[in-house]
Recover the amino acids of this structure.
């Protein structure tokens, strides 16, 4: 009888250790995913000053559009230390402003033919693709952690060790969900 109780206690403890380690693994995957998003968003933010310098000379009458991109970039940069919800809002505004800038750029044939501008467009398109992939990875890792934090019996271990659900990285409206169109 003692052996049965001992085996049962060891089994439950072993199962709790497996759940705990799985929670730790999922939390680390969420952190890794967030780091990937952070890197890609920084890459995009770093592209913008050079893009703006290229565009400024051509778009002398589009000061409002240029200012919108500059202000959105400043908000995105200041939100870099924020959580997913605040960061998504700031990055959504930046994506929207960049989309407007690229739409206005179509009215400037000389700009559309500028090789530097074309290179920045291609770089921006690549970064946007990388952001989308990083966001999918992060949101998948968040989903896995959140399922484990909510599911029985892992929720018992999660509550004991203060594992919490994480926020998804989502954009607020459909217009912001679209990757800026950069085809010329």
């Amino acid at each position: 009888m003692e052996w049965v109780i001992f085996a049962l206690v060891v089994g439950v403890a072993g199962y709790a250790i497996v759940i705990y380690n799985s929670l730790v693994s999922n939390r680390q995957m969420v952190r890794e995913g967030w780091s990937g998003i952070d890197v890609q968003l920084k890459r995009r933010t770093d592209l913008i000053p050079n893009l703006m310098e290229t565009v400024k000379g051509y778009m002398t009458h589009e000061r409002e559009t240029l200012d919108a991109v500059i202000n959105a970039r400043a908000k995105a940069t200041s939100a870099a230390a924020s959580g997913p919800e605040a960061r998504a809002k700031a990055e959504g505004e930046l994506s929207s402003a960049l989309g407007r800038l690229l739409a206005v750029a179509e009215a400037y044939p000389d700009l559309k033919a500028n090789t530097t501008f074309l290179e920045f467009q291609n770089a921006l398109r690549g970064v946007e693709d990388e952001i989308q992939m990083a966001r999918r990875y992060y949101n998948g890792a968040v989903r896995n952690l959140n399922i484990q934090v909510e599911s029985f019996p892992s929720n018992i271990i999660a509550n004991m060790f203060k594992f919490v659900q994480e926020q998804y990285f989502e954009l607020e409206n459909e217009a912001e969900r679209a990757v800026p169109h950069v085809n010329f």
